[in-house]
Amino acid sequence: MKKVLYLIVCAAPPASQTHELIAPLQEAGWDVCVIATPQATRWINIPALEQLTGHIVRTDYKLPGEAGPLPKANAILAMPVTFNTVNKWALGIGDTLAASLLCECMGRGTPPIVAVPCLKMDLVKHPAFRKNIALLQEYGVTVLHEPERYKSPLMVPLSEVLQALHVAYQTEENKEAS
């Protein structure tokens, strides 16, 4: 049985390359489900992502009583995650499905979450962002963010993302086994 990965996509330039992430994630053993912020839908090709993943791309809440359209996640990758979503998530503001899922999972403590922020350097230097990144890390989120190392668009190489996902998932599996 494949591990299920929720890929949270926010409205930043790398979102337009989301389709290129699917095959490497699948090759790493993940059944990928894409959840996009409403603004990210302008950057992604929803039909192509649905065809690649075999799942609907979720952008909105389901109605009460409706069955969840996606399998339960074993891990979450928020990539790219924006200044807006990072700050809302750290403060517990769930005004989009993507932010709500991040808040719920962080509150529950499972599944493991890896976040890869993508934002302008002026926003990286904003005191709220620095504070909220530290808060997310304190709560157990793996944040791959080194602005001095990864210049615009501040994205981490995919090999490092895959490694972080593997480590986060294995750490969670080891906790559950003990």
TrEMBL record:
InterPro entries: Flavin_trans-like, Flavoprotein. Pfam families: Flavoprotein. SUPFAM superfamilies: Homo-oligomeric flavin-containing Cys decarboxylases, HFCD. Residues 6-119 form the Flavoprotein domain. This is Flavoprotein. GO terms for molecular function: catalytic activity.
